[in-house]
Backbone:
C-alpha cells in the first residue's frame, strides 16, 4: 500500500499539477545547495539524474506518509553496450536495495524512520533519526522511547569510475551505549549474454565497512555501499568512497562554483544558474570515440545530437571554461565532420554507440543549420585558432548544404525539425531558417578571423540579408490575433518556436513586439513555461528557455525577468527539482542536461547580451530590468581570456559597464538601454 501511494505521488508531481506557488525547498544559507526540511508535507516523491564519466544514475526517491525514506536507483552504464547497439543501448539496471534495513542495533532491526532533511548539492543527502524495535514493542512504545541513532546518507556518482557511491554515517543519539551490526553484504546479477555486445555483464552491490561496533552516546561510524557494473569475469572495483566524494566535490567547487559566477538581486536565479552549470557539465561520458556530452534521461548516452550538443550546449562551454566540456564540444563537431560528402547528402541527426553508428530516423531535421550555428559560435567564443581552422570546413559545408535546400521562396527546406514529427513542421520551418541566418552571420565573422577570402565572407553577409527578407515574406503573419510568425506554411496555431527570430535578431520592431506578446499570452504561457502549440498540453523546456533569451534580446527585460524568476523558482524550489527539464508528458520531465546549458545561455546571451564576433571580441547588448540596479558575471573564461562584466544603472538612466580582465586594469564605459557595445579583450590566453 505504501508503494502504491509513493508511485501515485510521483505521477502527480511529474504531471506538473501542483500549484505554481508551491515551494517545498529552500536555499541552503550556509552553502550552495537546496534543502527540504521535512515538516509534515508528506508523502512526496521526486527523481533526479546525476552523472560521471563512466556512469549515470536516476534516483527515484521519496518520503512516505510514515516519514520514512524510499529509494530506487536506476543505474546506467553507457560503455557496456547492449543488443541491438542503438541509441538506447546502454546497460541499465534498477535496484531498490534497502541498505539501512540490513543493520541491527543491539540485535534489533531499525524501525520508525523519521526523515529530518533532504539536501542537494553535488549529491543527494538525507538526514534521518531511527528507532529500534523488537517483540512486544508497539509503535507507540517505540516512539516514546526516543530515537536510537541518527543517520546521514550521501549518494553520488563517481567522477571517473562506473560506480554509484553511498556513504552512511551512523551516530548514537541514545543515552546509553549501543552495539551496531553492519553485515557483510554482496548482491550480484549476471545479465543475459545474448543481450550484451560483449556478452554477459555483472551488476553488483557491496557493503564496505562491515563489522560489530560499540558506540558510546555521541559516537559515530561510517560504512559504504557501492553499486557498479562490469564485464563478466572482471573483478569488482573497491573504491575509496571518501576519496570519490572528495573528487566529486572538487569538480563542483573548482570547475563549477569557481567559474562563470553570476550575481544578481535575485538569489533564486543565481542559484538555479549554478545548478544548471553543474548539470550541463557533469554529463559527459568518456567513450571510445572521445568525450561525448550525454543528454541522459535513461536513453541518450555515448552519443551526440545536432540539436542537444551542437546547437544547445556546445556554444556555452567556452564561457564556463571547463576543459572537458570544451573537449566534448570539439569532439562532437569532429564526429559530424566525418560525414561531409561531395554530393551534399544530409548529415546524420545523431552519432551513436560511441561513434560507431548513426541515427537518421527523422530524416533531415535541419541538422546542418544546427551544426553550422553551434560550430561557428563555439569557434568564436573558444578563441582557439587551431580548433577554428579545423572546424571551418564543417561550417562552410553546412552553409552550402543549407543553401542548396532553399525553396523557391528563399527559406530552408527540411523533412522535419528538432521535435522529429511530434508536431507538424511543414516543408520548411521557421526554426531551421533562423538558425541558418545566425550561422551565416557567425561564419562571416569567423571567416574574417581566419583570413578567408573577402568575397566569401561578403557572400555570407549578402545571403543573410536575403534570408532575412525571405523569412519575413514566408513566415511573418497574423496568428491568433498577434503580429508574429507562423511556424510553417499553413500553420494557423501559435507555436512556442516562434521565439527563434528573437534569438537571432530577425524581425522589425512591430514583429518583435507582437511575438513577445504572443509568447507571453494566455494561449502559450503556463505555470510550467510555454506550450509547444496553442491548445495542446505538451511543453518542452527547450523552447521556453530559448524564448526567455529571446525576450531579453528583444529589449523587454522587465517581462523576461519576471518570467525567468517564476520559472526558476518552480524548477529550483518547487516539486520537481533542481534542474531545467526536457518535456511533459513525454519523458516525465527528465533532467536532460543540454537544457541546463540553454538556461545558462539566457544569462550570457540574453541578460548580458554577449554575441561572439571574433576570437578576442564580442558585441555586448545588456538588457537590465528596471528593478535591478546591478548584475555581475565573474570569471568568464571565453575568448582566450578570463574576465568579468559588471553592469550598473546610473542616475542618468544609462548603464555603466565595468570590464575586468586578468592582466589589465578595469575598463569602464557606458551604453544606453538597448545599445550595443563592441568589446575587445587583451590577448591573455587562460
Residues:
Amino acid at each position: 500500500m505504501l508503494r502504491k501511494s509513493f508511485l501515485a505521488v510521483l505521477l502527480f508531481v511529474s504531471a506538473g499539477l501542483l500549484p505554481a506557488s508551491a515551494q517545498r525547498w529552500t536555499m541552503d544559507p550556509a552553502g550552495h545547495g537546496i534543502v527540504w526540511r521535512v515538516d509534515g508535507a508528506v508523502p512526496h516523491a521526486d527523481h533526479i539524474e546525476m552523472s560521471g564519466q563512466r556512469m549515470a544514475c536516476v534516483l527515484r526517491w521519496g518520503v512516505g506518509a510514515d516519514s520514512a525514506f524510499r529509494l530506487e536507483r536506476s543505474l546506467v552504464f553507457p560503455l557496456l553496450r547492449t543488443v541491438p547497439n542503438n541509441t538506447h543501448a546502454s546497460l541499465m539496471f534498477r535496484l531498490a536495495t534497502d541498505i539501512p534495513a540490513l543493520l541491527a542495533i543491539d540485535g534489533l532491526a531499525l524501525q520508525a524512520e523519521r526523515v529530518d532533511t533532504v539536501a542537494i548539492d553535488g549529491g543527494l543527502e538525507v538526514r534521518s533519526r531511527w528507532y529500534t524495535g523488537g517483540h512486544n514493542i508497539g509503535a507507540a512504545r517505540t516512539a516514546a522511547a526516543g530515537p536510537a541513532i541518527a543517520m546521514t546518507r550521501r549518494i553520488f556518482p563517481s567522477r571517473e569510475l562506473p560506480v554509484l557511491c553511498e556513504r552512511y554515517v551512523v551516530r548514537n543519539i541514545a543515552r546509553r551505549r549501543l552495539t551496531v551490526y553492519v553485515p557483510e553484504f554482496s548482491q550480484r546479477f549476471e545479465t543475459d549474454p545474448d543481450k550484451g555486445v560483449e556478452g554477459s555483464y555483472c551488476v553488483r552491490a557491496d557493503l564496505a565497512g562491515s563489522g560489530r561496533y560499540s558506540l558510546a552516546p555521541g559516537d559515530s561510524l561510517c560504512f559504504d555501499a557501492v553499486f557498479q557494473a562490469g564485464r563478466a569475469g572482471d573483478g569488482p572495483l573497491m573504491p575509496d568512497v571518501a576519496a570519490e566524494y572528495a573528487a566529486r566535490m572538487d569538480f563542483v567547487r573548482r570547475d563549477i562554483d569557481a567559474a562563470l559566477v553570476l550575481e544578481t538581486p535575485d538569489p533564486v536565479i543565481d542559484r538555479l544558474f549554478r545548478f544548471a552549470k553543474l548539470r550541463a557539465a557533469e554529463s559527459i561520458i568518456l567513450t571510445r570515440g572521445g568525450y561525448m556530452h550525454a543528454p541522459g534521461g535513461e536513453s541518450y548516452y555515448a552519443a551526440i545530437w545536432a540539436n542537444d550538443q551542437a546547437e544547445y550546449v556546445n556554444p556555452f562551454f567556452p564561457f564556463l571554461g571547463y576543459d572537458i566540456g570544451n573537449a566534448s564540444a570539439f569532439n562532437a563537431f569532429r564526429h559530424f565532420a566525418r560525414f561531409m560528402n561531395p554530393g551534399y547528402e544530409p548529415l546524420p541527426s545523431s552519432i551513436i554507440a560511441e561513434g560507431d553508428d548513426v541515427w537518421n530516423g527523422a530524416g533531415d531535421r535541419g541538422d546542418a543549420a544546427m551544426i553550422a550555428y553551434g560550430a561557428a559560435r563555439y569557434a568564436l567564443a573558444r578563441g582557439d585558432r587551431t580548433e577554428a581552422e579545423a572546424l571551418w570546413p564543417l561550417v562552410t559545408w553546412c552553409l552550402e548544404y543549407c543553401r542548396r535546400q532553399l525553396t523557391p521562396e528563399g527559406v530552408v527546406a527540411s523533412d522535419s525539425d528538432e521535435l522529429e514529427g511530434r508536431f507538424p513542421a511543414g516543408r520548411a520551418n521557421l526554426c531551421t531558417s533562423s538558425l541558418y541566418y545566425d550561422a551565416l552571420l557567425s561564419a562571416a565573422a569567423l571567416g574574417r578571423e581566419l583570413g578567408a577570402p573577402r568575397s566569401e565572407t561578403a557572400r555570407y553577409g549578402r545571403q543573410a540579408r536575403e534570408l532575412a527578407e525571405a523569412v519575413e515574406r514566408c513566415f511573418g503573419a497574423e496568428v491568433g490575433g498577434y503580429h508574429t510568425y507562423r511556424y510553417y506554411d499553413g500553420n494557423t496555431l501559435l507555436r512556442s518556436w516562434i521565439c527563434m527570430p528573437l534569438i537571432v535578431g530577425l524581425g522589425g520592431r512591430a514583429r518583435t513586439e507582437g511575438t513577445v506578446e504572443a509568447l507571453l499570452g494566455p494561449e502559450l504561457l503556463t505555470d510550467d513555461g510555454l506550450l509547444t502549440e496553442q491548445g495542446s498540453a505538451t511543453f518542452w523546456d527547450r523552447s521556453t528557455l530559448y524564448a526567455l533569451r529571446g525576450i531579453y534580446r528583444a529589449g523587454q527585460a522587465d517581462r523576461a525577468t519576471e518570467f525567468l524568476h517564476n520559472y526558476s523558482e518552480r524548477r529550483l524550489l518547487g516539486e520537481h527539482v533542481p534542474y531545467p527539464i526536457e518535456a511533459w508528458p513525454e519523458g516525465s520531465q527528465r533532467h536532460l542536461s543540454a537544457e541546463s546549458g540553454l538556461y545558462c545561455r539566457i544569462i550570457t546571451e540574453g541578460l548580458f547580451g554577449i554575441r561572439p564576433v571574433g576570437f578576442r571580441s564580442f558585441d555586448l547588448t545588456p538588457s537590465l530590468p528596471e528593478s535591478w540596479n546591478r548584475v555581475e558575471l565573474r570569471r568568464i573564461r571565453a575568448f582566450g581570456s578570463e574576465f568579468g562584466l559588471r553592469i550598473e544603472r546610473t542616475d542618468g538612466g544609462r548603464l555603466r559597464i565595468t570590464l575586468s580582465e586578468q592582466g589589465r586594469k578595469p575598463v569602464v564605459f557606458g551604453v544606453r538601454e538597448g545599445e550595443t557595445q563592441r568589446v575587445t579583450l587583451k590577448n591573455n590566453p587562460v
